Each structure stands twice: as C-alpha cells, then as structure tokens.
C-alpha cells in the first residue's frame, strides 16, 4: 500500500499596493499556487497544494523575495494522507 500526502497551505502576501497587479501575475505563474483574493491595501491570499512540505517553504521564500513584496506569512497548513493504490483501483 503506497501512502501519499498532499499539503494544503494558505499564505497572506503583503505587497506595495501600487505593484499589486504585477506581483499577482508573478505569483499566479508559480506552479501549484492559486490566488483566492486580494485587497486594495496590497494583501493577497494565496493557496498552495503540494506534494511535500519543502515546496511550501521554498514557495514562501520565492514569493517573499519578489520585488515589491513586503512580507509573506503562512496562515494555515494541513497535511492529508491518502492511499494512492486505492485511487488507482477506482
């Protein structure tokens, strides 16, 4: 039986408001990242769905290092385990 996991994480990214659109474009281009909302004040809600925790921390670092990003922080992180064998059988 092959157990796999999926990591579901949400982030809040604080961006200089005048650069909100360009930073959102860069985030949306990242694999496994999806934008769920934003505000005029420059806050962006991002959800990641990944296969391992390392990708979550790497993505936080990449987003935080984008020009005009002030801060990126993890709000939620859940790990779901599932049996990949049973999904193949269905």
UniProtKB/TrEMBL annotation:
Keyword RNA-binding: no
Domain of life, source organism: Bacteria
Assigned GO CC terms: cytoplasm
A GO BP entry: negative regulation of protein transport
Protein transport among keywords: no
Molecular function GO terms recorded: signal sequence binding
Function text: Chaperone for NapA, the catalytic subunit of the periplasmic nitrate reductase. It binds directly and specifically to the twin-arginine signal peptide of NapA, preventing premature interaction with the Tat translocase and premature export.
Protein name, per record: Chaperone NapD
Native source species: Photobacterium sanctipauli
